[in-house]
Design a protein that fits this description.
Jelly Rolls; about 280 residues; six-stranded antiparallel β-sheet; 11 strands; Tscrpt_reg_AraC-type_HTH; three-stranded antiparallel β-sheet; single chain; 10 helices
């Protein structure tokens, strides 16, 4: 599967950006990238977000600002009681005219957009931004939509707790052939990470030797294959801890870990707490 050079949402006549509510029974894994900036506000459902080199859970209230050509996708399990829904805005740097954000009064917004090259996470998003983004697609005035989008960007530019999403090893917009191979590998790992995975098996997907593939993957993703698989497994464990009553030992096995002590160690490294503490914290919330 190639990463989709995603077509932005249909832009109505008389406006220079797209805004829409994306509602599906579930989000399926498929890398996407496009020339536009994207604001994606999760309004319903939980799942996993993949942005650049990172893998992490997402929850309602999360708002992501993604820069141009930043590969991303969201996945979730089909659940009739918890459909997947997001408010999505896509716009070019010059959607308000060439040089608009170079004006001195928009310095903070220009800095915000520059920081989006590796993705920015607002979790939870400021209430005013959430209210505007969920109402934006229903506004019947293009001028009102434009003013409100500019207001959202202003609010986010003043927010000091935005978190960068991708790691320092990520290089935006990799070569198309690299992107195609990485997509094939990541799509396969999404399906098989809870079982034993051999390096040779993954290398064979892209017709490379294990040694060459290890170097290729580390260079393209900014992390080793083992680290990436562990991240997938820990994310699966997080979902099981919050959505089931299964014992931690069973969750470790279902997530792909054959050794409980290794599971506990990796979980603490990546999440910052133990599996039981994580579960208890989410039960309290």
């Amino acid at each position: 599967m190639k990463p989709r050079h995603e077509q932005p949402g249909i832009i109505p006549y008389g406006i220079t950006f797209s805004c829409f509510m994306l509602r599906q029974e579930s989000f399926d894994f498929a890398w996407q990238f496009h020339e536009e900036y994207e604001l994606a506000l999760i309004t319903k459902g939980t799942g996993t977000r993949y942005v650049g080199t990172t893998v992490a859970p997402y929850h309602p209230g999360d708002l992501l600002l993604l820069g141009p050509d930043l590969p991303h996708t969201f996945t979730s399990a089909a659940d009739p009681d918890r459909p997947a829904e997001a408010a999505v805005i896509q716009f070019h740097q010059d959607f308000l005219g060439a040089g608009f954000f170079d004006l001195p009064q928009f310095y903070e917004i220009a800095r915000l957009l520059a920081g989006a090259s590796h993705g920015l996470l607002f979790s939870p998003a400021p209430r005013v931004a959430r209210d505007i983004l969920t109402a934006l697609p229903q506004l019947d005035s293009a001028a009102a939509q434009t003013v409100r989008l500019l207001e959202v960007l202003h609010v986010l530019s003043r927010c000091r707790d935005a978190l960068p999403i991708t790691g320092p090893g990520y290089t935006p917009a990799p070569d198309a052939s690299v992107r195609e191979r990485i997509d094939k590998v990541c799509s396969h790992l999404e399906d098989v990470h809870t079982r034993h995975v051999e390096l040779a098996e993954i290398a064979a997907l892209v017709h490379m030797s294990p040694t060459s593939f290890s170097r290729f993957f580390s260079h393209a993703m900014g992390r080793t294959l083992t680290d990436y698989i562990n991240q997938l497994r820990i994310d699966t464990a997080c979902r099981l801890l919050t959505n089931s009553n299964s014992p931690v030992t069973e969750i470790a096995a279902r997530s792909g870990f054959v050794n409980l002590s290794n599971f506990n160690r990796r979980f603490r490294e990546l999440v910052g707490t133990s599996p039981r503490e994580y579960r208890n914290a989410h039960l309290r919330s």
